[in-house]
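Students often ask why we bother encoding 3D structure as a string. The short answer is that it lets us treat folding as translation between two languages. Here is a chain of 188 residues written in the first language.
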Amino acid sequence: MISIGLEHNDRREVTRVLNNLLSDEYLLSTKTKNHHWNVTRSEFHDLHGLFGDQYTRLNQLIDQVAGRVRALGGNAFGTMTEFLRCTRLHERPGVHPNELTMVEDLYDDHQILFRSLRGILAGNASLRRDIGTTELLTRAMQEHEKIAWMLQSVLGKQDHLKKWLQAQEAIQREIGIHEVVAAGSAAT
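And here it is in the second language, the structure alphabet:
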């Protein structure tokens, strides 16, 4: 452990904040990979590439957060049990959403994270004493804002996508496929 001038209690608090963020980032990366792997239909090419780029960016951020925890002398979370216990985000196991719902889901999660990071940076005295972590969290917040902006641009095409999904559902019903998720609805 390197000496960065933080008292033990501040170091412990910063490590807790970072491990909570690590949990959020890991779950969001997993959700993004899930959507990347399972996107279909005509939006496949665009969304497959977008989600692939996003989970690559999230994985880089995950490594930076875990590295910072270790630099502070803490143990970075590394198990699904720890991640799921400490994340603020929610999984939707067994749900295979349509493309619009995938984008909305990720957009909502990125908003949760950048708003949470903004609040943590503004209100945590231990972080104000740790410029290295503050800078890392600021970069993380900016990354989530940027990804949310990209996802929002996809949602700007929402009306077109909803109409297309409704047409696909009508075709599926016509050919006898009955397990259809309503356009724009979250299958939970």
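Translate back mentally: The mean pLDDT is 84. Keep this in mind for the problem set.
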